[in-house]
Design brief:
The chain is mainly alpha-helical and about 180 residues long. The protein has a domain at about 5-125: Actin-binding Protein, T-fimbrin, domain 1 (Orthogonal Bundle). Helix content is about 45%, strand content about 0%. The chain is built from 8 helices and no strands. The protein has helices spanning about 5-15, 15-30, 40-45, 50-60, 70-90, 100-105, 110-120, 145-155. Helix 4 packs parallel to helix 5. The two termini are about 55 Å apart. One of its GO terms (biological process) is actin filament organization. Belongs to the calponin family. It comes from Agrilus planipennis (Emerald ash borer). One of its GO terms (molecular function) is actin filament binding. It holds the Pfam family Calponin.
Length: about 180
Amino acid sequence: MSLERQVKAKLAAKRNPEQDKEAQKWIEDVLGKKFPAGQLYEDVLRDGVILCELINKLAPGSVPKVNTSGGQFKFMENINNFQEAIKRYGVHDVDVFQTVDLYEKKDIAQVTNTLFAIGRATYKHPEYKGPRLGPKPADEHHPEFTEEQLKSGQTVIGLQAGTNKGASQAGQNMGAGRKIILGK
């Protein structure tokens, strides 16, 4: 099996059709319109128009100009504008798919993961009252310690450091040199 085929097989195995359906339903619910019948999920998203409409619905004015025609360059521009807008919305760089993942259908699973990341980001926008996608992210918790608690921790050796119970230097050859025999 060629390397290219192995890579394609690995990417296809990562893809979860149920998550694709869940992401599609969420987009349809947010936008209030269904995907065109008979078209594949990735084909509908490929030109970036639906994605730009999605982020504009979540954060109005995020992508001011959406290209509905103009070919490959214009559609890839839509995708790039969408990516920049979702970063401003709160999606981390590591959660954003690469343009070729969608436009060339290289990694549709990553596109779906990005949509789930947008769904998680909606929880951080209290003004958003629409449908949600994915679980609510955990809130950060910053414990506060008193000065006394902090000082008491300085005298304790944590268990991560291990223990010296039962340790000895038996078997170590401290101070004795190695005997090196030189051959002829």
